[in-house]
Design goal:
This protein has helices spanning 13-24, 31-41, 44-55, 61-77, 90-101, 117-127, 134-157, 170-191; strands spanning 2-7, 28-30, 81-84, 109-114, 161-165. By secondary structure, it is α/β, with parallel strands linked by helices.
Length: 192
């Protein structure tokens, strides 16, 4: 199964993606971690991503696709993945579908963790990352609303979107994610 965990910054994508990947026995592909590794390694793609990350902007599409390309194709060929943090825009979702579809590595289903903005801000400030100032958080949430929500609408139109309340204890969110995916799979089987 090829699952994208989506949600605003601080929604718990990383935590839930790791738990789900373990349950599905597929790799957890964390785009943020791969971007940070590319920046730290000083790769050309990492250098291109560094300035966008510092501003709180999304990494340019061509850069993030380059960073993730080999990881997604390999994971897709081995039975799937749980992807966290990419795609984040409609253009990226269309690119993933076009670039990775032929190799069987495109996103199959999206789980959106829905969390109120005030909770997101509190969570982000509490984790204490250098790039999590109040101004950057506000900007990141605005970018999320303007650029990621249209992508979620696109996946919904293709019957690939599941929405889960992410403002609950970690275990409850995890249970809801698994239950929702099982129901989605059953609906797909019955429809075919």
């Amino acid at each position: 199964m090829r699952v994208l965990l989506a949600g605003a910054p601080g929604a718990g994508k990383g935590t839930q993606a790791a738990l789900l990947a373990y349950q599905l026995d597929v790799p957890h592909v964390a785009s943020g971690d791969l971007v940070r590794q590319s920046i730290a390694a000083g790769t050309p793609a990492g250098a291109a991503a560094r300035d966008a990350v510092a501003r709180g902007d999304l990494v340019p599409d061509d850069v993030i696709v380059e960073i993730l390309r080999s990881t997604l194709v390999l994971a897709g060929s081995r039975g799937g993945y749980v992807l966290d943090g990419f795609p984040r825009t409609l253009a990226q979702a269309v690119t993933v579908d076009r670039v990775f579809g032929a190799s069987g590595a495109s996103v199959e289903v999206v789980v959106h963790l829905d969390v109120p903005d005030d909770v997101l801000t509190e969570r982000l400030l509490a984790r204490g990352r250098e790039d999590d100032s109040t101004a950057v958080i506000d900007h990141r949430l605005a970018v999320y609303r303007s650029q990621t929500l249209p992508m979620l609408d696109w996946y919904a139109q293709h019957q690939q979107l599941i929405v889960v309340d992410g403002d609950a204890p970690v275990e409850d969110v995890g249970t809801a994610v698994v239950r929702s995916l099982q129901e989605w799979r059953l609906r797909r089987r019955l429809a075919s």
